[in-house]
Amino acid sequence: MLPDPSTLALFMAAVLALNLTPGPDMLFCFAAGVNRGRVAGAVAALGIGAGTLVHTAAAALGLAGLLLASPLAFDIVRYAGAAYLVWLAWKTLRAPPLGVAGAVPERRSLWRVFVHGAVTNVLNPKVALFFLAFLPQFVDPAAGPVALQVFVLGMLINLSGTLVNLAVGAGAGGLGSVLARNPAISGIQRYVTATIFVGLAARLAIGSERPS
Fold it and tell me: Over the stretch 104-163, which tens digit does the pLDDT of each residue have?
């Protein structure tokens, strides 16, 4: 079910390098951590992981190929993802700043952070296309069912990425807790977080090339 040890080592080295490169998922976890705290940053990473699990299953089942074959489907998914990120930016701006007296955490806020992370990842078609382009390079048809190999390799990517994002989200939460002690700076945090979300939305809507 796995490639030979040398190929697997090359695969994991490439995966770690990719996961350590700042991207939309890492920025989302950073924003969640800075704006809501360590736990929220970690929960955001778990939400991203849940979304990546969907992409892994889709790649294993061949569903990601639909995005590659249909420019319209690709555009629908990416514009929905961009709109969702803009909505998150608006929600962030409306929320009370951390550190303000009387500010009450939103009920089920951690669950919402998890869901936001998962939905943001699922609605990024570039993740699906990455899985479709990257994983087959390390699949050996002689080693067993291809779909199973793709799923296992995808899970290894997900595990590595989740660990990296957990560190980023929790670390950003520590920074956020320090900044939140100053109400003025706490207010700025919301605008920084909203700006990150809007930037990610623009990157998704404008910077994503449609499959030809």
Answer: 445 458 899 999 999 999 988 888 888 877 887 788 777 778 788 889 999 999 999 999
**DSSP secondary structure of 137-157:** GG--GGGS-HHHHHHHHHHHH
Confirm if 98 and 91 have CB atoms less than 8 A apart: no
Neighbours of 22 (CB within 10 A): 9
Taking only the tens place, the pLDDT of each residue in 189-200 is 677 778 878 887
The token duo for 203 is: 């990157």
Those residues with Cβ within 8 angstroms of residue 181's Cβ, 6 or more apart along the chain or in another chain: 99
What is this structure's pTM?
0.75
- Six-digit token pair at 20? 């350590």
Q: What is the DSSP code (8-state) at residue 63?
A: T
Q: Please return the burial class of 104, using the count of CB atoms within 10 Å of its CB with bins 0-12, 13-18 and 19+.
A: exposed
